[in-house]
Design a protein that fits this description.
Chain A: Pfam families: Transket_pyr, Transketolase_C. The complex is a heterodimer. In chain A, about 40% of the residues lie in helices and about 20% in strands. By secondary structure, chain A is α/β, with parallel strands linked by helices. In chain A, the strands form three sheets. In chain A, strands 3-2-4-5-7-6-12 form a seven-stranded mixed β-sheet, with helices on both faces. Chain A has a five-stranded mixed β-sheet with strand order 9-11-10-13-14, with helices on both faces. A two-stranded antiparallel sheet of chain A has the order 1-8. Chain A is globular, with a radius of gyration of 20 Å. Chain B is about 45% helix and about 10% strand. In chain B, helix 1 crosses helix 2. Chain B is globular, with a radius of gyration of 19 Å. In chain B, the strands form two sheets. In chain B, strands 1-2-3-7-6 form a five-stranded parallel β-sheet, sandwiched between helices. Chain B has twelve helices and seven strands. The N and C termini of chain B lie far apart (about 50 Å). By secondary structure, chain B is an alpha/beta fold. The longest helix of chain B has 26 residues. The chains are: A alpha/beta, B alpha/beta. The interface between A and B is large, with 43 and 49 residues.
């Protein structure tokens, strides 16, 4: 199978949906001739022009709100907010308008709107360009939340998001944009609410998203050399969340370890831990463990950043300790 | 202007006035719960603007939104049922006074967040432009919204993209208790049109014909693809910010000031004008008002008799099933 980058998979998903549906268009900052802040790929703009690839001023509430107004009147916008940190500037539109629109007005309207935004930061991006705020949005009823970890998932989930008649917050990980992986030429969609079991194992269930999936997989490969079999699950979407796959995995392994890049307190790992404590307590041999970033803003200096966010070494040590090996 | 069009304007204003008086009364008797913000005194704005709109044109409204909804064709009984929290209401009891919408009538929703509707109306304008229809989107908002960030973001981008949006500022001179004079050095908000390079004007918001004419021009401009406009309608809210404010509104304005504005009642002025010009008789107006009152009584009865939603209906409608 051909291999393409995560960034190209994102662009390809949008391109295919724009080809299929006239009402799909994109808007955001620097997405036109500049080709996106990270992609440097003006393919969409070259193909579809200013009308359907709309550069905006730095007006995040307008980006989201204009997209919402267009979505409820016959269009299917894909808005981009340059960093998830900057989503906070548009929070009224996202939380009070987008998320509430359908329910508050009695279920009488469709809201086919995608907001794409990168999480996680480049290295050395510091406190205002590195956050992973996914749990904020998963907490708000009315938003679907997707978080792909591979080019294959990025394309398939984004195509599903664009086809959806519900608002989707689509988190892309900046450190994954250059990652290449197999993506079939043929069209495909990945349904929301289906976790991906990346690796089967019997000793421990590890749940991780986005870039953490890759770090956990490397650790799992190392531990296999010691005879430890780790099952790695990527939920792919946080809302809807596929708890069944995780619960049935824990039934087999008896242990849950959650890893995420977001801060620990009220991170999505807390929700996963709570679900398993409520519904899978009897399967557990050991207490649930979480490994997350420390509860601090992301620091600038390389060594401090590396210390703050779970790296492979920390994941390896924590799992080894957890298993008592 | 033709006589029947003038009488329609009067009827719209009367419908709003009587609806709001009834709602105020029901709120005082705790038959309508929650926050209720009445539009009494500002009827000429909604009536004058919406008289230029077609059913498939869009509006966004505010927390003080009953008037816009009525002017855009909302029916008393479904509005009243919504205010009563009944399943027959426009939003099946999930919205209430601050969240009435009806997408078939182009009412994209009242809004509990000041400024919330500004980018939404603008986005509807973007959609109109991209779908290449001759619809128009009208955004109603108050003076309180003019110093919020979305005012700037929306007008600026709608101007850049030349969108068919008419921004209608209802300057009732107080954002709850903070007066325009405390809120900005520019008291005539229509002047901000120049900051965005768009057309705009100021009108007496209590003069329904002036509102109608100014918005007619703006709506026609938008339909022809000539871009957005900003219309400022100077008006006044007679009641407190919300029902239940009672005498607290004397903390920020005087009884004398309120009375002066009541003397400038948009409906009384317009009635006098129509009678003086032999367009309608006082008897005919009385008749009209009796009919409206009767329809309102029926609407209240409809709301009272309607079934309450089941508590578990609360769990329905968050997402469209896929």
């Amino acid at each position: 199978m051909r291999e393409i980058s995560y960034a190209d998979a994102v662009v390809e998903a949008i391109e295919e949906e724009m080809d299929k549906h006239e009402e799909v268009f994109v808007l955001g900052e620097d997405i036109g001739r500049y080709g996106g802040a990270y992609f440097a790929n003006p393919k969409l703009w070259k193909k579809f022009g200013d009308e359907r690839v709309r550069d905006t001023p730095i007006s995040e509430s307008a980006i989201v709100g204009f997209a919402l107004g267009a979505a409820i009147t016959g269009m299917r916008p894909v808005a981009e907010i340059m960093f998830s940190d900057i989503m906070t500037v548009a929070m009224d539109q996202i939380v009070n308008q987008v998320a509430k629109m359908r329910y508050m007005f009695g279920g009488n309207v469709k809201v086919p709107l995608v907001i794409r935004t990168p999480i996680g930061g480049f290295h050395n991006s510091a406190a205002q360009h590195s956050q992973s705020l996914e749990s904020w949005f998963a907490h708000v009823p009315g938003l679907k939340v997707a978080m792909p970890s591979s080019p294959y998932a990025a394309k398939g989930l984004l195509k599903t998001a664009i086809q959806s008649n519900n608002p989707v917050i689509f988190f892309e990980h900046i450190q994954l944009y250059r990652l290449k992986g197999p993506v079939p030429e043929e069209e495909y969609y990945i349904p929301f609410g289906e976790a991906n079991i990346l690796r089967e194992g019997t000793d421990l269930t590890v749940v991780a998203s986005a870039v953490m999936v890759h770090r956990v997989m490397n650790v799992a490969n190392k531990l296999e050399e010691q005879g430890i079999q780790i099952e790695v699950i990527d939920p792919q979407t946080l809302c809807p969340f596929d708890k069944e796959t995780i619960l049935s995995s824990i039934k087999k392994t008896g242990r849950l370890f959650v890893v995420h890049q977001a801060c620990k307190t009220c991170g999505f790992g807390a929700e996963i831990a709570a679900i398993v404590a409520e519904e899978g307590f009897d399967y557990l041999i050991d207490p649930i463990q979480r490994l997350a970033a420390y509860d601090i803003p992301v620091p600038f200096a390389s060594n401090m950043e590396d210390f703050a966010i779970p790296n492979e070494q920390r994941i390896l040590s924590a799992i080894t300790e957890f298993l008592g090996k | 202007m033709e006589s029947n069009k003038l009488i329609e304007l009067l009827e719209k204003m009367l419908r709003i006035r009587h609806f709001e008086e009834k709602v105020g009364n029901l709120a005082a008797r705790r038959m309508i719960l929650g926050s209720v913000h009445l539009y009494i005194g500002e009827e000429a704005v909604a009536a004058g603007v919406c008289a230029n709109l077609r059913q498939n044109d869009f509006i966004t409204s505010t927390h003080r939104g009953h008037g816009h909804c009525i002017a855009k064709g909302g029916e008393f009984r479904f509005m009243m049922a919504e205010l009563f929290g009944k399943s027959t209401g426009y939003c099946q009891g999930k919205g209430g006074s601050q969240h009435i919408a009806n997408f078939d009538l182009g009412i994209l929703g009242a809004n509990g967040i000041v400024g919330g509707g500004m980018p939404i109306a603008s986005g509807a304008g973007l959609s109109i432009k991209m779908r290449n229809t001759d619809q128009v989107a009208v955004c109603f908002f108050g003076d309180g919204c003019c110093n919020n960030g979305v005012f700037h973001e929306s007008l600026n981008l709608a101007a850049v993209w030349n969108l068919p949006v008419v921004y209608v500022c209802e300057n009732n001179q107080y954002a709850v208790s903070v007066s325009v004079k405390q809120a900005s050095l520019i008291h005539d908000y229509y002047l901000r049109k120049d900051a965005y390079g768009i057309k705009g004007c100021q009108v007496d918001g209590n003069d329904v014909i002036a509102v109608y004419e100014a918005s007619k021009e703006a709506v026609e401009r938008a339909r022809k693809g000539e871009g957005p406009s900003l219309i400022e309608c100077k008006t006044y809210r007679w009641r407190g910010h919300y029902e239940g404010e009672f005498d607290r509104h004397y903390t920020y304005r005087t009884k004398k000031e309120i009375e002066e504005w009541i003397d400038k009642c948009p409906i009384a002025q317009f009635k006098a004008y129509l009678i003086e010009n032999n367009i309608i008789t006082a008897e005919k107006i009385d008749q009209l008002e009796e009919e409206i009152k009767r329809e309102l009584l029926e609407a209240v009865a409809f709301a009272e008799d309607s079934p309450a939603p089941k508590p578990e209906d609360a769990l329905v409608g968050l997402f469209e099933n896929e």
